[in-house]
Amino acid sequence: STDECPICTELYESQGDRLRALLHCHHTVCQRCLAALQQRATDRSRVCCPLCRQKTPLPQWEIRSMQEELMSHMGTSSPSTPQPTP
Ligand SMILES: [Zn+2]
Ligand SMILES: [Zn+2]
Fold this sequence. Notes:
The chain is α+β, with helices and mostly antiparallel strands. The protein has a single domain, classed as Herpes Virus-1. It is 28% helix and 14% strand. The protein has two helices and four strands. A two-stranded antiparallel sheet has the order 1-2. The longest helix is centred in the last third of the chain and has 14 residues. The structure holds zinc ion (2 copies). The site of one zinc ion has 8 residues, from strand 2 and helix 1.
């Protein structure tokens, strides 16, 4: 079956950490393992497939969302939305 991540052998899910991510080489890994691959990569703009070593450039939005997630983990207080004064 190709419905499980080859790295962590967990089944893919339609949402959350186990979303299926398709690489350029047509291998698939889950989002969680993709994030781990990216963290270990020297060049964060692309990940190296653990199965065939082919590199896949990551879309900008994905890098951004990961950076935002990282920021929230670091405990940076996000600027609160200005409250309209009556
Ligand atoms: Zn995985
Ligand atoms: Zn591959």
